[in-house]
Design brief:
alpha/beta; D-Maltodextrin-Binding Protein, domain 2; five-stranded mixed sheet; about 45% helix; globular
Length: about 325
């Protein structure tokens, strides 16, 4: 009888080892696609991880779920994690980096491309974003701050994604920060050109100065997660990142939830447009984190209750990922 119990107890523990990850929306956001691919392709299961992905409406919602203790981890933006991801003031720790930037581009109507050649040319104009508080708005404000353009010198107006695409096509705005599928379609149809295309690798460093991180997996500062959970999680996500780079959109789409896919033709455009935003090995260095926090601060103050440590190392929980990357494959 004792021998049977010895065999059964580890099996029960395995079944009970579940990670809940609050995953930022909208559901079609490409920045968080690696999580959905890892789930759909069975990579979590193959690592003997029972992972529940809890979709949320926005990056802020995922960060709030982490702060409330409703999830072990949150897949969200650094901005949202710092602003809303802590109940006590100790900021969340970054576990795995997903993307360097959101998959967006600053577009200019073709009719204005000769007069709007640089960010400086946007002063005194109207620039569109899909909505306040979105990654598009965040990156627009970061670009303006980096270029030394006061936000008071630019009129930022919200249109919704489809409305902004129409405003760019008609020339109703001088520029607009927009993601796919609209960004690619406007460019391919000859309606707009990209002044800044953050979907391309290297563009973030060109315009913002240093490599950084936008979307990542975060754990609360008081989390007890360790290598037993985080190493298999890292292995699964690394496989998902590789799969996104090599599989066709149709191959990826086959096992994904309908909400993640959206319209199939839009999904293909989003995947192809976003491939270069992902951090290839999930690794985020202290220097990258420092540069990204400075970017967050350039948009506005971080809440006073959030106590950032002097050493960026304290904000990283990437030791398990490092062990995976350094181990023979």
């Amino acid at each position: 009888m004792l021998d049977v119990r010895v065999r059964v107890i580890p099996w029960l523990v395995l079944l009970q080892a579940t990670l809940t990850i609050a995953t930022a929306g909208p559901a079609t956001a490409p920045e968080y696609l690696p999580l959905w691919v890892a789930q759909a392709e069975g990579y979590f299961s193959e690592e003997k991880l029972a992972v529940t992905l809890e979709p949320t409406r926005a990056e802020t919602s995922a960060a709030e779920a982490l702060a409330r203790g409703q999830a072990h981890l949150a897949a969200t933006s650094l901005d949202a994690a710092l602003m809303l991801g802590t109940p006590t003031g100790a900021p969340p720790r970054l576990v795995f980096g997903l993307s360097a930037t959101p998959a967006v581009a600053l577009l200019v109507p073709v009719a204005r491309q000769e007069t709007l050649r640089s960010l400086d040319d946007l002063a005194g104009t109207t620039v569109g974003v899909p909505a306040p508080g979105t990654p598009s708005e965040f990156m627009l404000l970061a670009l303006l701050a980096r270029a030394g353009i006061r936000i008071t010198r630019v009129t930022v107006k919200s249109y919704g994604e489809r409305g902004l695409a129409g405003a760019l096509e008609s020339g109703a705005v001088a520029a607009g920060m927009l993601g796919d599928p609209y960004a690619t379609r406007l460019i391919e149809d000859g309606k707009a050109v990209a002044l800044v295309d953050l979907r391309k690798r290297g563009e973030a460093e060109r315009w913002l100065g240093e490599p950084g991180v936008h979307a990542a997996l975060f754990a609360r500062a008081d989390a007890t997660l360790g290598p037993a959970e985080l190493k298999p999680l890292a292995r699964a996500l690394l496989r998902a990142l590789a799969r996104i780079q090599t599989a066709t959109p149709d191959e990826l789409r086959a096992g994904l939830p309908a909400a993640t896919v959206g319209f199939p033709e839009d999904f293909s455009t989003r995947v192809l447009g976003a491939r270069q935003i992902f951090l290839r090995d999930g690794r985020v260095t202290p220097a990258m984190l420092k540069a990204s926090i400075a970017l967050v601060r350039s948009r506005g103050p971080i809440p006073a209750k959030v106590k950032l440590p002097r050493s960026m190392e304290q904000l990283l929980l990437t030791g398990p990922l490092g062990e995976v990357l350094e181990s023979p494959r």
